[in-house]
Amino acid sequence: MNRTLFLGMRVIRYRMKTLVYQRPLHVNERSVHSWSQQKTFRRPGPQALPIVTSFLALAFLSKVPVVDSPRSLSTDPSATIRNCSTKMSAKLQKAKQEALWGMFVADALAMPVHWYYSPSDIKSGYGGWLTGFQAPEKHHPSSILTISATGGSGRSAGMGKSKPVIGDVILHDKLKYWTNRDRTVHYHQGMKAGDNTLNTVMALNMLQTMQKVDPQASMDPRELRGLVLEQYVKFMTTPCSHNDTYAESFHRSFFKDWSESKMRPTSAEALLHWTEDR
User: Fold this and answer.
1) Contact 212, 144 (CB under 8 A)
2) How confident is the prediction along the chain (278 residues), in pLDDT tens digits per residue?
């Protein structure tokens, strides 16, 4: 595993030179399942690496200032400040980029064995430890997908006859997996090796939005939240915007309330008011 990760980091650094520095975190407008599906960023050889991150880390990394205070001052304070700021900015930029890439790779590697609670299940299901990107098995040894609520958060027990969010509002073609009688349905049914989970792809979408509307990180935070919310609702409610089968409780709860609201807000300002009231 160490060797695999080490080789992966070498590939990451190569890709950072071609992706991040030449086109700093800009992505075309079409929906993305993983970077491996974008020919723009593909090179001959091994499968292109996919994207993954988390909402909190992404939000933090995207808003960290790129100028740090100098540690010491010379006889020319202004020159020292400029020099130190430039050095710290470059280091911070590189750290931010590598942190994101690290998350991208980790999610893609772990995707097939999400919520595996026994190491022996990994070995028996995949013929040993994972050493690279793999597609998930159809069956999951500890899946609770089919007893998860389709109309909100948590489990299906006690949900009554609430209208499904899965299949009607989000995950438009995935309801059949949630209602399957087979209790071993994998959470990421049908995803391919190197694909990214919904949270990952949504976080990438969030990063794209912030990069597009606030490249200088100078926008009012509330206004930025509204624009991110607007894109979140658009992305999640658009069929085929991603390829995952599973949506966690916080997504389902959000869209349960959203779908039951009188006007299903879609604009940034309307969503801000709605979420604040919620």
Assistant:
1) no
2) 333 333 333 333 333 332 332 233 333 333 334 444 433 333 333 343 333 334 445 554 555 443 333 333 344 555 545 555 566 688 888 998 898 888 888 999 999 999 999 999 999 999 999 999 999 999 999 999 999 999 999 988 655 567 899 999 999 999 999 999 999 999 999 999 999 999 989 988 999 999 999 999 899 999 999 999 999 999 999 999 999 999 999 999 999 999 999 999 999 999 999 999 98
Tell me the whole-structure pTM to 2 decimals. Answer: 0.69
- The pair of structure tokens assigned to 263 is 């006007």
Q: Which residue is listed with tokens 């022996």? A: 120
Q: What is the dihedral of CA 74, 75, 81, 86, to 10 degrees?
A: -70
Q: Please tell me the total number of residues recorded for the chain in this structure.
A: 278
| Nearest to 49, CA basis, from 3, 5, 92 | 5
List CB contacts of 185: < 8 A, sequence separation 6 or more: 138, 139, 140, 143, 145, 146, 177
Distances from the Cα of 235 to the Cαs of 96, 168, 187, 197, 277, in angstroms?
25, 14, 20, 14, 22
Q: How far apart are CA 235 and CA 241, in angstroms?
A: 6
One-letter amino acid at 131 equals: T
